[in-house]
Amino acid sequence: MNGDLSWAPISEPANVLDIGTGTGIWAIEFADKNPTSNVVGTDLSLIRAQDIPPNCEFFRADAEENWIFDYSFDYIHLRLMNTCFDDPKGMVKKIFDHLQPDGLIEYQEFCFEQIAADEASELAIQNNAQSHQATERRTNRSHLSRLNPWPLDPKDKQIDMYSQHNLTEATRSTCKFMKALGMTESEIDSFLDGVGSSIADTSVHSYTPWYVVYGRKPIEGRSANVK
Protein backbone atom coordinates (compact mmCIF):
# COMPACT_ATOMS: atom_id res chain seq x y z
CA MET A 1 0.00 0.00 0.00
CA ASN A 2 3.02 2.24 -0.57
CA GLY A 3 3.47 2.92 3.13
CA ASP A 4 -0.17 3.73 3.86
CA LEU A 5 -1.69 2.13 6.95
CA SER A 6 -5.23 2.80 5.79
CA TRP A 7 -7.15 3.80 2.69
CA ALA A 8 -10.46 4.49 4.42
CA PRO A 9 -11.38 8.20 4.71
CA ILE A 10 -10.75 8.42 8.44
CA SER A 11 -10.06 11.67 10.30
CA GLU A 12 -8.74 11.61 13.87
CA PRO A 13 -10.80 8.60 15.07
CA ALA A 14 -11.17 8.62 18.85
CA ASN A 15 -11.28 4.83 19.37
CA VAL A 16 -9.61 2.39 16.98
CA LEU A 17 -9.65 -1.42 17.04
CA ASP A 18 -7.22 -3.70 15.19
CA ILE A 19 -8.65 -7.24 15.08
CA GLY A 20 -6.10 -10.04 14.69
CA THR A 21 -3.29 -7.63 15.48
CA GLY A 22 -0.55 -10.29 15.33
CA THR A 23 2.76 -8.69 16.32
CA GLY A 24 0.93 -5.42 16.96
CA ILE A 25 3.03 -3.50 14.43
CA TRP A 26 0.03 -1.96 12.61
CA ALA A 27 -1.60 -0.79 15.86
CA ILE A 28 1.69 0.67 17.13
CA GLU A 29 2.39 2.55 13.90
CA PHE A 30 -1.18 3.83 13.72
CA ALA A 31 -0.99 5.03 17.32
CA ASP A 32 2.32 6.78 16.63
CA LYS A 33 0.86 8.59 13.62
CA ASN A 34 -2.43 9.41 15.41
CA PRO A 35 -1.50 10.47 18.96
CA THR A 36 -5.06 11.63 19.78
CA SER A 37 -6.51 8.18 18.99
CA ASN A 38 -6.99 5.41 21.54
CA VAL A 39 -5.76 2.32 19.65
CA VAL A 40 -6.56 -1.23 20.79
CA GLY A 41 -5.21 -4.45 19.30
CA THR A 42 -6.69 -7.90 19.97
CA ASP A 43 -5.52 -11.39 19.07
CA LEU A 44 -5.89 -14.99 20.21
CA SER A 45 -2.24 -14.91 21.31
CA LEU A 46 -0.73 -12.69 23.98
CA ILE A 47 0.96 -9.69 22.35
CA ARG A 48 4.53 -9.06 23.54
CA ALA A 49 5.31 -5.93 21.55
CA GLN A 50 7.96 -3.43 22.64
CA ASP A 51 8.04 0.37 22.51
CA ILE A 52 4.26 0.62 22.79
CA PRO A 53 3.07 4.24 22.67
CA PRO A 54 0.91 5.45 25.59
CA ASN A 55 -2.22 5.63 23.42
CA CYS A 56 -1.98 1.96 22.39
CA GLU A 57 -2.84 -1.21 24.33
CA PHE A 58 -3.29 -4.91 23.59
CA PHE A 59 -5.69 -7.56 24.83
CA ARG A 60 -5.81 -11.32 24.39
CA ALA A 61 -9.32 -11.93 23.06
CA ASP A 62 -11.31 -13.98 20.57
CA ALA A 63 -13.17 -11.54 18.32
CA GLU A 64 -15.89 -14.14 17.69
CA GLU A 65 -16.70 -14.35 21.39
CA ASN A 66 -18.33 -11.64 23.54
CA TRP A 67 -16.35 -8.42 23.27
CA ILE A 68 -14.76 -7.11 26.46
CA PHE A 69 -15.16 -3.41 25.62
CA ASP A 70 -17.88 -1.22 27.10
CA TYR A 71 -17.56 1.42 24.37
CA SER A 72 -17.90 1.57 20.58
CA PHE A 73 -15.23 2.25 17.97
CA ASP A 74 -14.87 4.92 15.31
CA TYR A 75 -12.63 2.75 13.10
CA ILE A 76 -12.13 -1.04 13.03
CA HIS A 77 -9.29 -2.52 10.99
CA LEU A 78 -8.69 -6.10 9.81
CA ARG A 79 -5.90 -7.49 7.65
CA LEU A 80 -5.11 -11.02 6.40
CA MET A 81 -8.06 -12.67 8.16
CA ASN A 82 -9.77 -14.57 5.33
CA THR A 83 -9.40 -18.02 6.93
CA CYS A 84 -9.67 -16.99 10.58
CA PHE A 85 -13.39 -16.87 11.31
CA ASP A 86 -15.82 -19.75 11.74
CA ASP A 87 -18.74 -17.40 11.05
CA PRO A 88 -17.62 -14.55 8.74
CA LYS A 89 -21.11 -13.05 8.40
CA GLY A 90 -21.58 -13.15 12.16
CA MET A 91 -18.22 -11.44 12.56
CA VAL A 92 -19.25 -8.61 10.24
CA LYS A 93 -22.48 -8.22 12.21
CA LYS A 94 -20.52 -8.06 15.47
CA ILE A 95 -18.21 -5.39 14.03
CA PHE A 96 -21.22 -3.38 12.81
CA ASP A 97 -22.81 -3.54 16.26
CA HIS A 98 -19.62 -2.19 17.89
CA LEU A 99 -19.12 0.71 15.49
CA GLN A 100 -20.16 4.22 16.34
CA PRO A 101 -22.72 5.72 13.92
CA ASP A 102 -20.69 7.06 10.97
CA GLY A 103 -17.80 4.78 12.01
CA LEU A 104 -15.71 2.90 9.45
CA ILE A 105 -14.59 -0.69 8.98
CA GLU A 106 -11.63 -1.43 6.69
CA TYR A 107 -10.64 -4.92 5.55
CA GLN A 108 -7.34 -5.52 3.74
CA GLU A 109 -6.77 -8.90 2.11
CA PHE A 110 -4.87 -10.56 -0.71
CA CYS A 111 -6.36 -13.07 -3.14
CA PHE A 112 -4.83 -16.51 -3.79
CA GLU A 113 -4.29 -15.71 -7.46
CA GLN A 114 -1.22 -15.31 -9.65
CA ILE A 115 -1.11 -12.55 -12.26
CA ALA A 116 1.83 -12.78 -14.66
CA ALA A 117 4.14 -9.84 -15.19
CA ASP A 118 5.41 -11.11 -18.56
CA GLU A 119 4.66 -13.70 -21.25
CA ALA A 120 7.12 -16.31 -20.00
CA SER A 121 5.68 -16.13 -16.51
CA GLU A 122 2.15 -16.42 -17.90
CA LEU A 123 3.14 -19.67 -19.59
CA ALA A 124 4.71 -20.97 -16.38
CA ILE A 125 1.57 -20.17 -14.40
CA GLN A 126 -0.66 -21.86 -16.98
CA ASN A 127 1.49 -24.98 -16.76
CA ASN A 128 1.22 -25.01 -12.98
CA ALA A 129 -1.29 -27.61 -11.83
CA GLN A 130 -2.32 -25.41 -8.90
CA SER A 131 -3.32 -22.42 -11.05
CA HIS A 132 -6.97 -21.33 -11.13
CA GLN A 133 -9.27 -18.62 -12.39
CA ALA A 134 -10.07 -15.78 -10.01
CA THR A 135 -13.67 -14.92 -9.28
CA GLU A 136 -14.92 -11.50 -10.23
CA ARG A 137 -15.57 -9.17 -7.31
CA ARG A 138 -16.31 -5.55 -6.54
CA THR A 139 -13.96 -3.62 -4.27
CA ASN A 140 -13.15 -0.06 -3.45
CA ARG A 141 -9.43 -0.13 -4.21
CA SER A 142 -6.87 -2.74 -5.17
CA HIS A 143 -3.11 -3.04 -5.43
CA LEU A 144 -0.81 -5.62 -7.05
CA SER A 145 1.73 -7.17 -4.70
CA ARG A 146 4.66 -9.25 -5.99
CA LEU A 147 4.80 -12.86 -4.76
CA ASN A 148 8.55 -12.97 -4.20
CA PRO A 149 11.71 -10.80 -4.54
CA TRP A 150 12.18 -11.08 -8.29
CA PRO A 151 12.73 -7.33 -9.02
CA LEU A 152 16.28 -5.91 -9.22
CA ASP A 153 15.64 -2.84 -7.06
CA PRO A 154 17.00 -3.49 -3.50
CA LYS A 155 14.06 -1.74 -1.79
CA ASP A 156 11.54 -3.76 -3.82
CA LYS A 157 13.43 -6.95 -2.99
CA GLN A 158 13.21 -6.26 0.74
CA ILE A 159 9.48 -5.51 0.57
CA ASP A 160 8.85 -8.59 -1.55
CA MET A 161 10.73 -10.85 0.88
CA TYR A 162 8.09 -9.90 3.45
CA SER A 163 5.34 -10.51 0.89
CA GLN A 164 6.71 -13.98 0.16
CA HIS A 165 6.91 -14.81 3.86
CA ASN A 166 3.37 -13.56 4.54
CA LEU A 167 1.88 -15.42 1.59
CA THR A 168 3.71 -18.67 2.42
CA GLU A 169 2.57 -18.49 6.05
CA ALA A 170 -0.98 -17.71 4.93
CA THR A 171 -1.17 -20.94 2.93
CA ARG A 172 -0.79 -22.84 6.22
CA SER A 173 -4.09 -21.37 7.38
CA THR A 174 -5.87 -23.42 4.70
CA CYS A 175 -5.06 -26.73 6.43
CA LYS A 176 -8.52 -27.06 7.97
CA PHE A 177 -10.12 -26.94 4.53
CA MET A 178 -7.83 -29.66 3.18
CA LYS A 179 -8.51 -31.80 6.26
CA ALA A 180 -12.22 -31.41 5.54
CA LEU A 181 -11.53 -32.81 2.05
CA GLY A 182 -10.01 -35.91 3.64
CA MET A 183 -6.32 -35.17 3.09
CA THR A 184 -3.87 -36.60 5.63
CA GLU A 185 -1.33 -34.53 7.55
CA SER A 186 1.53 -35.84 5.38
CA GLU A 187 -0.41 -35.10 2.18
CA ILE A 188 -1.15 -31.57 3.36
CA ASP A 189 2.50 -30.96 4.32
CA SER A 190 3.73 -32.26 0.97
CA PHE A 191 1.21 -30.15 -0.93
CA LEU A 192 2.00 -26.96 0.98
CA ASP A 193 5.75 -27.55 0.59
CA GLY A 194 5.14 -27.60 -3.15
CA VAL A 195 3.08 -24.43 -2.95
CA GLY A 196 5.84 -22.74 -0.96
CA SER A 197 8.41 -23.73 -3.58
CA SER A 198 6.21 -22.30 -6.33
CA ILE A 199 5.79 -19.03 -4.43
CA ALA A 200 9.57 -18.78 -3.93
CA ASP A 201 10.39 -19.41 -7.61
CA THR A 202 11.87 -16.07 -8.70
CA SER A 203 12.05 -17.22 -12.33
CA VAL A 204 8.29 -16.65 -12.41
CA HIS A 205 7.51 -12.93 -12.28
CA SER A 206 4.01 -12.57 -10.92
CA TYR A 207 1.73 -10.61 -8.65
CA THR A 208 -1.16 -11.32 -6.34
CA PRO A 209 -4.04 -8.83 -5.96
CA TRP A 210 -4.33 -6.96 -2.67
CA TYR A 211 -7.86 -5.72 -2.00
CA VAL A 212 -8.95 -2.97 0.37
CA VAL A 213 -12.66 -2.74 1.14
CA TYR A 214 -14.21 -0.28 3.56
CA GLY A 215 -17.70 0.71 4.64
CA ARG A 216 -19.31 3.29 6.88
CA LYS A 217 -22.01 2.60 9.47
CA PRO A 218 -24.94 4.86 8.60
CA ILE A 219 -26.25 7.46 10.99
CA GLU A 220 -29.89 6.73 11.86
CA GLY A 221 -32.05 7.90 9.00
CA ARG A 222 -29.22 7.86 6.46
CA SER A 223 -28.81 5.08 3.88
CA ALA A 224 -25.74 2.80 4.16
CA ASN A 225 -22.57 3.78 2.32
CA VAL A 226 -20.65 0.56 1.69
CA LYS A 227 -17.79 0.66 -0.79
TrEMBL record:
SUPFAM superfamilies: S-adenosyl-L-methionine-dependent methyltransferases. One of its GO terms (molecular function) is methyltransferase activity. Residues 127-148 are annotated as: Disordered. Gene3D superfamilies: Vaccinia Virus protein VP39 (3.40.50.150). Keywords: Methyltransferase, Transferase. One of its GO terms (biological process) is methylation. InterPro entries: SAM-dependent_MTases_sf. It comes from the Eukaryota. Belongs to the methyltransferase superfamily. LaeA methyltransferase family. This is UMTA methyltransferase family protein. It comes from Pseudomassariella vexata.
